[in-house]
């Protein structure tokens, strides 16, 4: 399906044996085919990037290679020998190590204690501390970082980059041949990225195979020699960096038909006044946020994981408030310092993590629906079973409106399907008369039918004069639903696209290609 | 990132390298403040009289030994509420088996050590294999042990021979044997934690059980061993108490509130309830703070129940100061 001469995997096979090879790996999770017969070869002395959209299967593949998941079918070969990892420690011992995004270090222990945890040099159980520190010193010197990190330093006192280096040191100390790095640079400054790059080059020169998972195409093109693209759990291609441009990669990553049904976009007459305005607002994650949200529109917010999408929603709703800048709700410019204030101003937040933030799973439907409106009542107000004094049958009215399918409103929400749970969350905010809705991944983990009905409800809301901001990592959803799209990257809003923009345009912006020529070309091309 | 090469004196460097737990600053403040109050409102014996000074330590022995054990389990992100009952059982069983006869001493000690080790093993197994929360698991064993104990003994039972009182009352030179035992237990605890593989594994397991498992540690075993050590320190405390009281009663452990106080002093000492951070020296500092407060209230002749107000305030203040400190460090 792709240009044949880009395919290098066949050509190199004859020259060298791959250090690590996966063949026909398939992995199925409930409801999703995460990996579908994926085969990739990784060679020694090579930096090999694996890229793809959220949910393309990159992380699943890496977890299989490092022993965290067992594949449903398919084989893994290490230096030509078939291996089977049931536990990460087995992969470690065979020389395959992985460094995850979240740190796997003990912050209260020293560098040496962390690296050799469980393998300390000891005689009858008593640790030879000088020897332990010397081993660590030797290892760090080998890596060329002995000036940066002392074996006896406590990990919590190190910078993020130095901590990452300690993790790499730990991996190398297992004598690893394959080093997998999952988004290693996500939280590093550019100086630190340089440091890491130097280290990667050094390891490469030693004949290790480095696998590099990243969302940042700019970096992928700086550091990797080969790039493998995955899409929707399927292998697309493995290419040499020299043969392709970032745009080629993006085309491989996206480019699928808009196969779902979405309700029609908003009409000009639906659009009302600005209900939410943010000017030059910042906090620890977000920089210089400027946005306007109008009555009657769906404003899509796209961006990759870690781009600041969820942080933006949390800042607007007062969970992690902005520290500077201005925020106006319905023309009222008071800083949003708490969710309580946000709710009192008519905001509703349908969170990404439904289970831990959106519902009380062990409480019945009726109490979940009435949760937000009760929060606004006086503490001493009496609680009604099915509604509030103003509206006695609120629960049933709203449940019918959003089409919650249940035989009884006494049923605990945990026993509903994902789609029905999400509808309960919607009803909860409708009860509180919210006029500004923030949706964070409104249809994650929901079946197709429920998805369509939630999309329908969102559009209905805007017809009734509600303003909707919808965050989603699914590009088709963003494109299918949004009247306007904001793209975020690295805590900033990097651009705005009109409705029905292409996935390629979005993806380029979301991977850090903020360069004006791309976005202006794209917009110009439309007009 | 590297420490600048300003020449520092050997003492300063040494002080920095041993990292004095911050609880000792609290201890100094409370001791100086207490001594001042004593000078003003009472006879000032707290600093002048060596016996009273020594008494601060002797009062701390019983709590100190078991708190060292509690530190082990808390470092492993576990907790042991059953220590008070192990102390009670030890004291009763010891004097019951000894019946004042020196010939029975070895048997008695063996039996109580076995009871302690079994309790620790059972606690550890319930927590790691049945995956019961440590608080609930040890609360359960506490109730079971209490039921057995109260059904069997109701009052002082038997007595210890005069030779066994050595532990509680004798001195080697000017120093009471009991203090030497407390220091020895602390030193052994420190050695295990900072010099042995088990100690490193305990910090690893308590700090982050997933990291520990990924590093190949058998974390269940680590937790079980920590619980056995903790119960054994409770046995030593029980032996000390019975040698001072000369006979064991089924209420000595619970009346001493050794369960909650051992947890409190461990936490005051800077060991995190979440595990993986802290050590025995801090706990010893926490125990001595309680000892100073006891002595002070005694000196001033204040209603002893009032001291709990001060203790409570110190727990809250100490833990709040650690939280603020660690927040500032990470910021």
Report on this structure:
The complex is a heterodimer of chains A (527) and B (331). With 527 residues, chain A is α/β, with parallel strands linked by helices. Chain A has helices at residues 9-13, 58-65, 88-94, 111-115, 129-143, 160-173, 190-205, 217-223, 246-253, 309-316, 339-344, 354-358, 365-376, 394-402, 418-431, 448-463, 475-481, 503-510, 516-526; strands spanning 20-29, 32-42, 46-51, 73-78, 81-83, 96-99, 122-123, 126-127, 178-182, 209-213, 226-231, 234-240, 274-282, 289-294, 298-302, 324-329, 347-350, 436-440, 467-471, 484-489, 492-498. Chain A has a six-stranded mixed beta sheet, with helices on both faces. A six-stranded mixed beta sheet of chain A has the order 17-18-19-15-20-21, sandwiched between helices. In chain A, strands 2-1-4-5 form a four-stranded antiparallel beta sheet, covered by helices on one side. Chain B has a domain at 61-279. Chain B has a two-stranded antiparallel sheet with strand order 1-2. In chain B, helix 9 (177-195) packs across helix 10. Chain B starts with 9 loop residues before the first helix and ends with a helix. The relative contact order of chain B is 0.19. Residues 1-7 of chain B have low confidence and may be disordered. Classes of the chains: A alpha/beta (527), B mainly alpha (331).
How would you concisely characterize the structure shown here?
The complex is a heterodimer of chains A (527) and B (331). With 527 residues, chain A is an alpha/beta fold. Chain A has 19 helices and 21 strands.
SSE string of chain B: HHHHHHHHEEHHHHHHHH
The helix content of chain B is over 70%
Rg of chain A, Å, rounded: 26 Å
Query: Oligomeric state of the chains?
Result: heterodimer
Query: Share of helix among residues of chain A?
Result: 25-40%
Summed up, the helix count of chain A is 19
Residue-averaged pLDDT of chain B: 89
Number of helices of chain B: 16
The number of E-state strands of chain B comes to 2
Bin the strand percentage of chain A: 15-25%
How does the overall form of chain A come out from the CA principal axes? globular
Estimate the mean pLDDT confidence of chain A: 83
- How does the helix and strand content of chain B classify structurally? mainly alpha
- Biggest interface, CB < 8 A: A-B, 28 and 24 residues
Uncertain runs of chain B: 1-7
End-to-end separation of chain A:
31 Å
Low-confidence spans of chain A: pLDDT under 50, at least 5 residues?
Answer: 1-14, 515-527
Radius of gyration of chain B: 21 Å
User: What about the largest sheet of chain B?
Assistant: 2 strands, antiparallel
Biggest β-sheet of chain A, characterized? 6 strands, mixed
Q: Which structural class fits the helix and strand makeup of chain A?
A: alpha/beta
